[in-house]
Amino acid sequence: MTDRSMDAADEQRRNFLKVGAAVGAAAVSGVAKAAPLQTSDIGKSPLKQPPLPWAENALEPVISARTLEFHYGKHHAGYFNTLAGLVKDTPMADQTLEEIILASAGDPAKKALFNNAAQAWNHNFYWTSLTPDKTAPEGPLLNAIQRDFGSVDALKAELAKVTTAQFGSGWGWLVSEGGTLKVVSTSNAEVPFTNGQKPLLTVDVWEHAYYLDWQNRRPDHVKAVVNDHLDWRFAAKNFA
Ligand code: FE2
Question: What does pTM read for this prediction?
Answer without folding.
Answer: 0.83
